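Researcher: Let's do a round of design. I'm pasting the structure tokens now; please hold your answer until I've finished.
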């Protein structure tokens, strides 16, 4: 005879007629736990998507200034807590420089710690 186990979701005892590997006392508890896991996973993805959009918006705000010739430095974006690790791709230009892609913008950190920003489509690099 196996020792009684508690349901992972509601802490009630798991009935003896369920599989020995069962973690839930009923299908209803399994379903509720699954909904909670799905919601948690969705929310964690939303946090990333929102951060991604925030960084794309930062580049969008600086792009017109860059086009007018204003120098944008690494430090300025760093003060805005720009996450340099977030990107949805990379492109290499003809000079073998690697541009990071965030949404519809590409940026390049130059050797002098200035930032180049371009509208990004795969054909312009």
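Researcher: That's everything. Go ahead.
Model: Designed sequence:
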């Amino acid at each position: 005879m196996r020792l009684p186990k508690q349901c992972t979701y509601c802490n009630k005892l798991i009935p003896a007629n369920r599989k020995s590997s069962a973690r839930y006392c009923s299908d209803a508890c399994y379903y509720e736990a699954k909904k909670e896991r799905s919601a948690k996973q969705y929310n964690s993805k939303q946090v990333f998507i929102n951060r991604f959009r925030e960084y794309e918006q930062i580049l969008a705000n600086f792009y017109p200034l860059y086009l007018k010739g204003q120098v944008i430095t690494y430090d300025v974006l760093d003060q805005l807590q720009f996450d340099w690790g977030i990107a949805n791709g990379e492109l290499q230009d003809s000079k073998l420089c690697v541009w990071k892609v965030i949404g519809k913008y590409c940026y390049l950190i130059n050797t002098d710690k200035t930032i180049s920003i371009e509208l990004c489509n795969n054909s312009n690099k």
